[in-house]
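Researcher: Please predict.
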Amino acid sequence: QVQVVESGGGLVQPGGSLTLSCRASGFTFSFYSVGWFRQAPGKERVGASCIDIKNGGTYYEDSVEGRFTISGDNDKKTVLLQMNGLKPEDTGVYYCGARYITDVQGLCVRPDYYGMDYWGKGTLVNVSS
Protein backbone atom coordinates (compact mmCIF):
# COMPACT_ATOMS: atom_id res chain seq x y z
CA GLN A 1 0.00 0.00 0.00
CA VAL A 2 1.40 3.38 -1.04
CA GLN A 3 1.71 5.99 1.68
CA VAL A 4 3.18 9.49 1.73
CA VAL A 5 3.07 11.08 5.18
CA GLU A 6 4.19 14.58 6.11
CA SER A 7 5.08 15.76 9.60
CA GLY A 8 6.86 18.61 11.35
CA GLY A 9 4.55 21.54 10.79
CA GLY A 10 3.51 23.92 13.52
CA LEU A 11 3.42 27.48 14.78
CA VAL A 12 6.69 29.40 14.65
CA GLN A 13 7.66 33.04 15.06
CA PRO A 14 9.10 35.03 12.17
CA GLY A 15 12.79 34.29 11.82
CA GLY A 16 12.38 30.84 13.32
CA SER A 17 13.04 27.39 11.90
CA LEU A 18 11.15 24.18 11.21
CA THR A 19 12.07 20.87 9.63
CA LEU A 20 9.40 19.07 7.65
CA SER A 21 9.61 15.34 7.01
CA CYS A 22 8.05 13.33 4.19
CA ARG A 23 8.11 9.56 4.69
CA ALA A 24 7.14 7.30 1.81
CA SER A 25 6.34 3.60 1.52
CA GLY A 26 4.91 1.17 -1.00
CA PHE A 27 6.88 2.27 -4.09
CA THR A 28 10.48 2.26 -5.37
CA PHE A 29 11.56 5.54 -3.86
CA SER A 30 14.90 5.83 -5.68
CA PHE A 31 13.19 6.18 -9.08
CA TYR A 32 11.16 9.21 -8.05
CA SER A 33 11.46 12.96 -7.88
CA VAL A 34 9.93 14.34 -4.72
CA GLY A 35 8.85 17.86 -3.96
CA TRP A 36 7.47 20.08 -1.26
CA PHE A 37 4.55 22.15 -2.45
CA ARG A 38 2.77 24.79 -0.40
CA GLN A 39 -0.65 26.33 -0.49
CA ALA A 40 -1.25 29.66 1.22
CA PRO A 41 -4.80 30.56 2.28
CA GLY A 42 -6.84 31.48 -0.77
CA LYS A 43 -4.03 30.71 -3.23
CA GLU A 44 -3.09 27.86 -5.51
CA ARG A 45 -0.59 25.17 -4.57
CA VAL A 46 2.94 25.95 -5.81
CA GLY A 47 6.30 24.24 -5.66
CA ALA A 48 8.81 25.31 -3.01
CA SER A 49 11.59 22.78 -3.51
CA CYS A 50 12.11 19.48 -5.31
CA ILE A 51 14.75 16.73 -5.33
CA ASP A 52 15.69 13.85 -7.60
CA ILE A 53 16.22 10.96 -5.18
CA LYS A 54 18.58 9.04 -7.50
CA ASN A 55 21.05 11.78 -8.47
CA GLY A 56 20.44 14.33 -5.71
CA GLY A 57 19.63 17.18 -8.06
CA THR A 58 17.61 19.93 -6.43
CA TYR A 59 15.48 22.93 -7.33
CA TYR A 60 14.39 25.86 -5.17
CA GLU A 61 11.76 28.45 -5.90
CA ASP A 62 13.26 31.94 -5.80
CA SER A 63 11.55 33.05 -2.59
CA VAL A 64 12.98 30.13 -0.57
CA GLU A 65 16.45 29.95 -2.14
CA GLY A 66 19.07 30.36 0.57
CA ARG A 67 16.59 29.79 3.40
CA PHE A 68 15.27 26.27 2.73
CA THR A 69 17.31 23.09 2.23
CA ILE A 70 15.87 19.89 0.81
CA SER A 71 17.51 16.51 1.35
CA GLY A 72 16.64 12.92 0.54
CA ASP A 73 17.50 9.60 2.19
CA ASN A 74 16.76 6.64 -0.03
CA ASP A 75 17.40 4.07 2.73
CA LYS A 76 14.85 5.72 5.01
CA LYS A 77 12.57 6.71 2.10
CA THR A 78 12.43 10.18 3.58
CA VAL A 79 12.73 13.72 2.25
CA LEU A 80 13.41 16.55 4.68
CA LEU A 81 12.82 20.26 4.19
CA GLN A 82 14.87 22.38 6.57
CA MET A 83 13.30 25.84 6.72
CA ASN A 84 15.23 28.73 8.27
CA GLY A 85 14.49 32.43 8.45
CA LEU A 86 10.78 31.81 8.18
CA LYS A 87 8.52 34.68 7.13
CA PRO A 88 4.77 35.21 7.52
CA GLU A 89 4.41 34.68 3.77
CA ASP A 90 5.73 31.13 4.22
CA THR A 91 2.49 30.28 6.02
CA GLY A 92 0.43 27.54 4.40
CA VAL A 93 -0.21 23.85 4.09
CA TYR A 94 2.89 22.01 2.89
CA TYR A 95 2.33 18.92 0.78
CA CYS A 96 4.80 16.25 -0.26
CA GLY A 97 4.38 14.93 -3.79
CA ALA A 98 6.23 12.27 -5.77
CA ARG A 99 6.45 11.53 -9.48
CA TYR A 100 8.34 8.84 -11.38
CA ILE A 101 11.60 10.00 -13.04
CA THR A 102 10.80 13.67 -13.60
CA ASP A 103 12.97 16.74 -14.08
CA VAL A 104 13.00 18.49 -10.70
CA GLN A 105 12.64 22.01 -12.06
CA GLY A 106 9.70 21.05 -14.23
CA LEU A 107 8.09 19.20 -11.35
CA CYS A 108 8.36 22.19 -9.05
CA VAL A 109 7.43 24.91 -11.55
CA ARG A 110 4.57 23.08 -13.29
CA PRO A 111 3.22 20.42 -10.90
CA ASP A 112 -0.27 20.45 -12.45
CA TYR A 113 1.15 19.95 -15.95
CA TYR A 114 3.14 16.88 -14.91
CA GLY A 115 0.67 15.49 -12.38
CA MET A 116 1.90 13.76 -9.24
CA ASP A 117 1.80 10.00 -8.88
CA TYR A 118 1.42 10.32 -5.12
CA TRP A 119 0.44 13.07 -2.69
CA GLY A 120 0.48 13.32 1.07
CA LYS A 121 -2.29 14.98 3.05
CA GLY A 122 -0.18 17.96 4.08
CA THR A 123 1.13 19.60 7.23
CA LEU A 124 0.30 23.14 8.34
CA VAL A 125 3.04 25.74 8.83
CA ASN A 126 1.97 28.95 10.54
CA VAL A 127 4.52 31.75 10.79
CA SER A 128 3.17 34.36 13.12
CA SER A 129 4.16 36.49 16.10
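Model: The radius of gyration is 13 Å.
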